[in-house]
Amino acid sequence: MDDPVDELIAAEAPHSARHIWILGRPRLIPAARPWAPTSFWSDDIRDLEPVRHSHGDEIVANPMDGDAGPVPDQVWMELPESLDALDDTLSALHGLAAARGATGLHIVAGGRIRRMNKSLNTVAARWFDDVHASLGRRRARVLHFSSPRAHPARGAGWPRHNQISTMGLEVELVAHGGVFHGAGLDAGTALLLDQRGTMLSRLPSRPAILDLGCGNGVIAAALALELQGAAEVQARDVSWLAVDSTRRTALANHVDVDVTQADGLDGVADESLDLIVTNPPFHRGSARDSAPTRRMLTDAARVLRPGGQLWCVYNSHLPWGEHLDAEVGPTQQVARTKAYTVTRTIRD
Ligand SMILES: C[S@@+](CC[C@H](N)C(=O)[O-])C[C@H]1O[C@@H](n2cnc3c(N)ncnc32)[C@H](O)[C@@H]1O
């Protein structure tokens, strides 16, 4: 195994496992299977689909789904950087174990040392009586969580609800812990939504609108509220936590949004959309790789109708304006602050 985190998780896991649940680290599957029956989940559909393909549907189990099947006695997982993401996952695993009276749950959570901090242990101690760290090896470390607490410190619970206001529009956001900006409004997204008067002014009747990379669903919900049923609003994201949050946000605001978990614009019909609105991802996980975003933006040229618009907000130092101008159509800067730029691109 060439990944030090995978290697350490497999080496540190107690050898007594009866059923192992791997979260977010597909390359651990071959290490786990000779020991015990194995389940797998990844929030990102790009990691989940290949596993579904090679191991079948039976291996897939989502810890956020209260109906997830038998509760394993071991979980081998990627340690998220976000404390809220960890809290949400541990809350779900603790809840599943408690509902089935399973007290022997042992979690082995691994990550790179430079991305870890002591607060992760504090979060885990809300849910487990026994929380301790391994010795680091090859810049990786694992944390062990066991003995689920009889009376965990639940806090406000997940998913979180939050009422935000954007230029006179009230939106209730609902979000899981691992979603971009949680149940809050990102400053770049706020700048983008501030332009919605112009954005929605030149659309055909009953336009087809897509919130691309929807996160907590704030863009889809705000536009659906603004247009009050006079549009077909869709949303998509690679993350299950994001699509579930967006569905809940739409429900909380009593608007119809058609939400899909998918990679970029895969499966969207050619020339089928009038408007795409996006605060695109900057990088995948912790790898500073902008290729997926580049691909996703380029593909907008295929799915927009001629004359259709792409509205985008991004960090002002990024090259997306030039990229859109070259690949999709004439691109104009609509708003700019020191931190963020909003552009409108019209498909040629
Ligand atoms: C910067 S966040 C914006 C979230 C939300 N629209 C907002 O404004 O708060 C970018 C979102 O894109 C999603 N994403 C990343 N890569 C993607 C891809 N290849 N296809 C679809 N969504 C993707 C991420 O999961 C994340 O939710």
UniProtKB/TrEMBL annotation:
Pfam families xref list: MTS, RLMG_N
Keyword Cytoplasm in annotation: yes
UniProt domain RlmG N-terminal: residue ranges: 72-145
InterPro entries (UniProt xref): DNA_methylase_N6_adenine_CS, RlmG_N, RsmC/RlmG, SAM-dependent_MTases_sf, Small_mtfrase_dom
GO biological process terms held by the UniProt record: methylation; rRNA processing
Keywords per UniProt: Cytoplasm, Methyltransferase, rRNA processing, Transferase
Designated name of the protein: Methyltransferase
Organism: Acidipropionibacterium acidipropionici
